[in-house]
Amino acid sequence: MNKDITIATIEKLIKFYPDAKCSLDFTTPFEMMIAVMLSAQCTDERVNLTTPALFAKYNTPEKMANAPLEELEKLVHPCGFYKNKAKNMKLAAQKILNDFGGNVPKTMEELIAIPGVGRKSANVIMLEAFNNPQGIAVDTHVKRISNRIGFSKQSEPEKIEQDLLKKLPRNYYKDVNHVLIWHGRSICTAKNPKCNKCPIYEVCEKCNVSKIS
Which of 85, 90, 95, 120 is catalytic? Predict the structure, then answer.
């Protein structure tokens, strides 16, 4: 898919999802970072049910760095992979205190150096916490849609992101992060996609109208 068609496709999705935004609840960059870490292999809905109790006690790097690991594990248990997530949360808080003066850093390079924060998470944090998108967070929805529609033939998230960045001007970064995820959740689902309701079915390489669910 060429650059012009890619931009036109994203513009259609922006019009179709005018209220698309981040689904995670947070009030500070640190809460954003923790919420994103918890969202790995977990739904945003589940994260939002979990973080109120967590943030009521440990909503700053100082508090979380000194929190008992066992208590963090108990609090984030509903999000799955709780032992690894709790460990990374505590290590991340300690690194922010020791290396960044207690503030979540505002660059991709620094964010990626934090335990539990990969490129996808760093992209989300840069967009949602600092309103300064540096790229496109390729989660399972973005990967699936990019492959189905023809934005990218790649399977690795970073390569998919690079294909998208080559075709989309920077002013689209914010919207594309939101609309592709919303589209993947509501219409272009992993199983039984609702092709009959899709606003971009005509450019989808995988869409088979005869198999509308």
Answer: 120
Q: Is it the case that residue 213 has pLDDT exceeding 60?
A: no
At 207, the pLDDT band (50, 70, 90 cuts) reads: confident
Confidence bin at 212 (pLDDT 50/70/90): very low
44 noted as active-site residue: no
pTM here is 0.91
120 is catalytic: yes
85, 90, 95, 139: which is the annotated catalytic residue? 139
For 63-119, give the DSSP string. HHHTS-HHHHHHHHGGGSSHHHHHHHHHHHHHHHHHHSTTS--SSHHHHHTSTT--H
CATH number of 3-20+136-211: 3.40.630.30, 1.20.1250.20, 3.40.50.2300, 1.10.1670.10? 1.10.1670.10
